[in-house]
Amino acid sequence: MAKLLLLSVCGALALLGVYSTGTSHLEKSRGSSDNDGIHLAVSPQCGPFGGKTTNVNAGIVFGAIETIVSFGDSYTDGGIDNGSTLLPAVLVPPNVEAGGRSTNGPVWIEGLSGDWGAKLMDYAQWGACTNLSLWPSNPRKVDFIDQMATFLGQSNQLDPETTLYSIFFGINDYIASLIDGDHLPQAAETILNEIKTLSSPPTNGISFLVVDVYGRGNTSAWGEAYKQQVFDGLRAFHEGPAKLNVAYVDLAEIWDGVLGSDPGYEAFGYTSTAACTLCTEDCDQYGWCMDPEHYFYWIDGHPSKETHRIMADFVEEVLQNCKV
Ligand SMILES: *[C@@H]1O[C@H](CO)[C@@H](O)[C@H](O)[C@H]1NC(C)=O
Ligand SMILES: *[C@@H]1O[C@H](CO)[C@@H](O)[C@H](O)[C@H]1NC(C)=O
Ligand SMILES: *[C@@H]1O[C@H](CO)[C@@H](O)[C@H](O)[C@H]1NC(C)=O
Q1: pLDDT in tens, 167-197
Q2: What residue stretch is flagged as signal peptide (predicted)?
Q3: pLDDT exceeds cutoff 50 at 126
Q4: Which residue lies with its CA nearest to atom 13 of ligand 2?
Q5: Model confidence over 292-315: pLDDT tens digits?
Q6: CATH no. for residue 124?
Q7: Pocket of ligand 2, candidates 130, 131, 152: which has the most ligand atoms within 8 Å of its Cβ, to mutate?
Q8: Residue 268, in any domain of the structure
Q9: Count of domains in the chain?
Q10: C-alpha–C-alpha distance, residues 114 and 119, integer Å
Q11: Of 188, 211, 290, 317, which has the fewest beta carbons less than 10 angstroms from its beta carbon?
């Protein structure tokens, strides 16, 4: 754990183009060497690959990963959506977005790529769903299919052996399903179709990480069925002729643990489950809370940078501890 946290500090500094050795006042002034005291108070439940949805890593060797290609929504949006180098994850008030991100610092996938020393190519876009043709109500007209088109249009020559494809959708599909009806089976199918495309020529991808937290603490029968369909599809890719390396990470344990009573937000080090920028009393000059380091959310429904860090920790724990 200590090693991962230290690496994460280096990752954050590297993003800013600032390198330091050892413990400097710079790290302390950033207050992030211990993630401001925010830590995982749950550990991933691992399960067999088969049966009910759970956390699994079937074949991803993260020591071998040199490039991460990342698709998703605002939870993964690094502020630049064409795979190019991201802007520094620095907040310039009164703008609530650190370098275009939907949060006040680095997003989880930057934590992961920083820890691994991997190059990040991020195509994620705030507001994105899997497939716009399923969701007329999705407010922003962007989806996984667009992100794939951007990526494929670049004809990137990436080595399949050292490239991980990360896919994290579901939140906007779930919200849209409450309005447009249950098209989540087709949304799950879209994710699986796109993995099929990425694993075929010319990309020939072999390693795929799928992350989910569709209900952010809420569940529904159709949401659970959506997860199960993606999970079963991943297993088929792993066990079938393509023998893909796949991992499934369900972040619901964090949301349930923080927003529910077992173990509750205090156990993670938070003082509030609210969004800092929705401050109503004791606010700073920008209308933000005085103690953003200990808030679960930064903007409404969107993880703070400390929450992003524990999301990365959770993903790493799954990849390490949930090998099947
Ligand atoms: C990616 O997007 C950024 C910001 O819009 C732009 O400055 C950059 O030129 C783009 N890069 C490519 C390769 O399209
Ligand atoms: C997107 O949804 C439409 C409508 O269900 C479907 O025809 C299409 O195949 C889907 N796209 C992908 C890539 O799965
Ligand atoms: C969860 O469900 C409750 C009750 O229906 C609702 O008020 C809340 O907005 C939902 N939260 C999310 C993140 O969907």
Answers
A1: 999 999 999 999 999 999 999 999 999 999 9
A2: 1-20
A3: yes
A4: 190
A5: 999 999 999 999 999 999 999 999
A6: 3.40.50.1110
A7: 131
A8: no
A9: 1
A10: 8
A11: 290
